[in-house]
Design a protein that fits this description.
357 residues, seven-stranded mixed beta sheet, 20% helix, Endonuclease/Exonuclease/phosphatase family protein, nuclease
Length: 357
């Protein structure tokens, strides 16, 4: 099982430079064996009209929004306090067909803007402009909404079939930064996983760098046909990522597990493992729990204890069918302190800790 992991290499510098020129930001491609290279054929770019009234775009069949705020809902406005909110969202086959629906993309962009970092599953498109165009919509919503500065990292296309997917991280650059050398796709030579997870290390911004919360996120989606086997494999993935050379003990495993918090197989049996989403449904039809953010509770004392499911139907006043056009999953989220804390929950200073050693 130890052979399940190996660090990927970053994509070609020229590809990154091209992406920056196109306004796509980092768009770091974490690659492993058999990585997909950008197509030599120029894809057509999808353009979105930012509506003057975000809650009622002219071409949308949806009604105006009344954003709620209770114990399991994040505030409607972007967070600005000493905490960050990390979300996971299976957007259900985000490809060219869904991207052509402006009202869907507007809602997706608005959902992203409610969090500081969003791990997204099921990007399914060979159009290399799709994600940069979507990030542009997140950052430039129009109307009275302030501009944001989200950036992203995206993994290689993974999966055994022709219907491959990419994992994506979107993050607010004023609140969070990515370690560009830390991004990689899990290498799976024994074919234990249908879609190899994307891994990246982040840290909070706006605080003393020596006290900033640094954490690694593993973005995954299990195969619903082989759930238990893949959950067992994810237990080994989690162990190896925590034992990696970076020595980062704050590892958050997020995504679509196709299983609830009580049936996580070997992953759920690991000492200290804690699912932040428990006892609630996470799918749009409101009858299954698939999605979660899982951490090692003794290590990640930065977790504030606040987490939940973002109810897309309730927050946007949608019918079930309208919400299903966005996704058959709801986003799940958890809240963390922006400050690195030790095992006793005290703010830790990495520079002083290093001096003591």
């Amino acid at each position: 099982m130890q052979r399940i992991l190996s660090l990927g290499t970053l994509a070609a510098i020229g590809w990154l430079a091209w992406t920056f020129l196109q306004g796509g930001g980092l768009q770091q491609i974490a690659v492993g064996p058999g990585a997909n290279q950008p197509s030599s054929q120029q894809p057509s770019s999808t353009q979105y009209r930012s509506p003057g009234n975000w809650n009622a775009p002219a071409s949308s069949p949806y009604q105006s929004t009344s954003t709620g705020n209770n114990s399991i809902q994040p505030p409607g406005q972007p967070n600005s306090g000493p905490v960050i909110r990390i979300a996971s969202f299976n957007v259900q086959s985000l490809g060219n067909a869904k991207a052509a629906k402006q009202y869907v993309m507007v809602r997706l962009a608005d959902i992203v803007r409610k969090f500081d970092l969003v791990a997204i599953q099921e990007i399914r498109s060979t159009n290399d402009y799709l994600v940069p165009d979507f990030v542009q919509l997140v950052n430039n919503p129009g109307g009275n909404f302030p501009q944001r500065r989200f950036d992203y990292v995206i993994g290689q296309r993974v999966g055994r079939t022709t219907n491959q997917e990419q994992f994506l991280f979107l993050f607010d650059t004023e609140r969070i930064e990515v370690d560009q050398q830390s991004v990689y796709t899990i290498s799976d030579p024994d074919d234990m996983l249908f879609s190899e997870p994307l891994v990246a290390t982040f840290s909070t911004r706006g605080v003393n760098p020596d006290e900033a919360f640094t954490f690694t996120v593993v973005n995954n989606r299990t195969d619903p046909v082989r759930v238990n086997d893949e959950l067992d494999a994810l237990a080994e993935v989690y162990r190896v990522v925590r034992r990696s050379a970076r020595q980062e003990d704050d590892v958050i495993l997020v995504g679509d597990f196709h299983s609830d918090d009580r049936h996580l197989s070997r992953l759920g049996q690991m000492p200290g493992i804690f699912p932040t989403i428990a006892g609630v449904w996470t799918n749009t039809r409101q009858d299954k729990q698939y999605d979660n953010l899982i951490l090692h509770q003794p290590s990640t004392t930065e977790y504030t204890g606040r987490s939940g499911v973002f109810d897309v139907m309730r927050n946007y006043n949608l019918t079930e069918q309208q919400a299903l056009e966005i996704s058959d999953h709801f986003p799940v989220w958890a809240e963390f302190s922006v400050y690195e804390r030790d095992y006793a929950g005290r703010v830790a200073n990495r520079r002083l800790e290093g001096a003591r050693r």
